[in-house]
Amino acid sequence: MTVGLGVSIGTVNTVCAVASGGGGRHGHRPNRIAPSATWRTTLTFDSTGTARVGRIPRHGRAIAEFADLTQRSAATARVGHRALSAADLVATVVASVAGQVLGGPPGPEVGLTVTHPVGYPPDRVAELRHALAALGLGHATLVSEPVAAAAWLAAAHGPLMPGLALVYDLGGAGLTVTLVRVGAGCPADPVVGEPLRCTDFGGRAFGAQLARRERWSAGVGPSLAHRVTDAAITELRTAHVRHSLEAVYECLRIADVTMADVDCVLVVGGAARPPEVAGLLAGALARPVIVAPDPERTIADGAALLAYRLGETALGGGTRRGHSARQLRRRIARAAAVAGAVAMAGALISLVPGDHPVPVSGPPVPVMHHFGERDAGHITAR
């Protein structure tokens, strides 16, 4: 049985998904994506140098803020006598979560796709590829996040006519807007124009805005008119998303297109769960808006589908021996439960310095499409 493993490593959370097939009336198309597992994107190392993902220790530090290799502030670490770059840390996360889900290292018989922020220059992609190869994951395929999201769109809502999709990725650490070609005849690099990244929007920025509002309310007094109610939060979030439209229009301007040239808007990212996000975009952009029940896992699901497809192509449509679908579903369910329990326990103890709490999981929102439509004693982080 062919297995496709997709790993999406965001600044805040890491998501891993598995696509599996099995023939039948679907032929060799993947007929199931196992429930994804989510970890906080943090690393700790014990005294033996073994890495743990998603753990926030009571004492010592968890390494964070290393997922985007283009950031000068990307964390590095020293474990024993080893100096680990940000790319090494990302590769360590991939190896760790894949090992938890599969019950062992992902060998070449498992299709593996790892996503990265869009716009990585060739040297950054090569650096990440080298780091993965050093951990025995040289067979992994690297794709940008909006390309993986477009793969999910094609699988969930295809077949798509040739056209443009605008991927609105609202994550914990920021907003990324990208135009991607979809449908038949797409080039190898389907990104159109230049993607735009802005940290003024997203989970952290909105959390900081709420915190400022809380402090302001506390200074004014306990009047109900000044308290941050659910209605006030909805109003603030709607305004937050409305202000982000400037990034959307700038992305269109750079690509020399208009919203009339865009066929649909694909909304992804953990901070895009509230329905007012898609609602505001649908009303303001007047284009069909598509969002998955859990938009945080869309990129990982798309990566898993790409991994499955590439694995089938490499195998020539044959059948692999190895993990059964039932085994994978059980393992990824256990990994999700353990990751959630560890993250929740860690959140009660402390937070990564400078971070804001981000829920590991949450209730799914309804699918909206066409609606009017990431050894405390032996490590040094620097």
Automatic annotation (TrEMBL):
Sorted UniProt keywords: ATP-binding, Chaperone, Nucleotide-binding
Keyword check for Thylakoid: no
GO molecular function, one term: ATP-dependent protein folding chaperone
Domain of life: Bacteria
Pfam family, one: HSP70
Protein name, as recorded: Hsp70 family protein
Organism (species): Nocardia terpenica
Lineage: Bacteria, Bacillati, Actinomycetota, Actinomycetes, Mycobacteriales
